[in-house]
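Help wanted!
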Amino acid sequence: MSSRYLVRFDDLCPTMNWDVWSRVERAMLSRMVRPILAVVPDNRDPHLDVQPARADFWEQVRHWQRRGWTIALHGYQHRYVNQNSGIIGRNAYSEFAGLTEAEQDRKIAAGLKIFESQGVRADAWVAPAHSFDQTTLRVLARHGIKNVSDGYALRPHKDAAGCVWTPQQIGRFIDMPAGLWTVCMHFNSWKESDLLAFETSLKRFEDRIIPFPDAVREGETRKASWADSAFATSFRAVRRMRSVMPCA
Ligand SMILES: [Zn+2]
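Answered by r_m:
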């Protein structure tokens, strides 16, 4: 089987970069791409204050969801409170990992309450900074969220607790021989060159881009294999190596 791709955009909130977003949205519509959109329920992170807040933000989110795009709960306030990198280990800061179950439950319940009051369903979990732990997963399951977009596997799979993991490994489109690759992008800081690169990539990869529900369906019936764990180990090693290399 050749490689397939999922498109994910993080950090959607009322003060996001609407100018860039309008071009991103248009490009995805013209190629019939159905992305994962990670929405911050109650943003308090000044880094995501890029343009004046738009009053119709939640109307837009409902519109995207009706269109069949996946809406993920992206934490609660996008505010990092410690140096815990959680089970993924990518960034040493977190809104969730290391906190008590009661504290994590309070945040997730508050985020979901906002979604609910706005008529939006949480289709998946996307942790701010990829940082969360087993407690987060337990709390999410209790609130009915069993789809996670994260981790370094080759393909989606279901764990022993019934959680379906759709891996997220890369930040731009790269030609891969096999596997399912989620490309996670942060459009808030994009320049013209990033937009052009994205439009070019969509044109090149459009036949291999699948929507999130297809990945979940595949994960529902599949346990992680030795190939997934071998892949995760080497992928982490390469990431670590690149982070210490000056030209990486
Ligand atoms: Zn984020």
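OP: Thanks! One thing I noticed: The helical segments are 18-30, 57-66, 101-117, 134-142, 192-205, 212-220, 226-244.
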